[in-house]
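Translate structure to sequence.
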């Protein structure tokens, strides 16, 4: 098991959008835990992505592609997502700028939800979390800053150590885990758990978008 907790990549601007995203996600989670369990279940059912809604209420399904990004299933779900967002998003925001970054982030989140829907079109299990959008950030970071050193805690049974690893290997290994687990669920009727293909969809969208933006910049020059 590994857990990145910071990088050595200096930011070149104050990442206001990243701060806002972290704040909004934490605020929404506090709302989740302060309401009654019944209300919380209904909140997740109504604002989470339910793939089967594409054939029942497509308009509401489209809305949930946005709202689902700001809901989380538990504290560890929130903590893991916000940790990765905090580490990697500031540098991606720095190269894109505030406006382009929020468009980039939301686009990756939408693509993540769409791919998971395509993989499990009849599922009625709500999909929530910022993971897909953050996966897009990870993809962009890996392509743009592959040599940036990421401080990572490595756990081996009862032993752990801290190492500085290039982002290419940390995030490449993260993607490999998503692919391995995602492919392992194909053909299986899942009733919950991790939306692996949402992660894959967000990551690949992030890579494609950042490559496209780089090509546009080269042409303009």
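Result:
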């Amino acid at each position: 098991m590994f857990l990145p907790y910071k990088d050595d990549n200096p930011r070149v601007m104050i990442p206001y959008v990243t701060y806002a995203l972290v704040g909004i996600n934490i605020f929404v989670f506090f709302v989740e835990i302060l309401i009654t369990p019944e209300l919380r279940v209904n909140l997740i059912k109504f604002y989470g992505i339910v793939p089967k809604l594409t054939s029942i209420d497509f308009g509401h399904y489209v809305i949930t592609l946005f709202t689902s990004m700001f809901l989380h299933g538990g504290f560890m779900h929130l903590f893991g997502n916000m940790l990765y967002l905090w580490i990697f998003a500031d540098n991606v925001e720095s190269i894109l700028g505030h406006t382009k970054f929020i468009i980039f982030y939301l686009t990756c989140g939408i693509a993540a939800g769409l791919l998971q829907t395509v993989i499990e079109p009849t599922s009625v299990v709500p999909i929530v979390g910022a993971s897909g959008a953050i996966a897009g950030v990870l993809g962009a970071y890996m392509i743009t800053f592959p040599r940036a050193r990421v401080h990572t805690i490595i756990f081996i049974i009862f032993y752990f150590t801290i190492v500085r690893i290039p982002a290419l290997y940390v995030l490449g290994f993260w993607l490999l885990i998503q692919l391995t687990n995602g492919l392992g669920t194909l053909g299986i009727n899942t009733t919950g758990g991790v939306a692996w293909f949402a992660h894959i969809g967000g990551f690949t969208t992030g890579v494609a978008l950042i490559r496209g933006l780089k090509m546009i910049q080269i042409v303009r020059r």
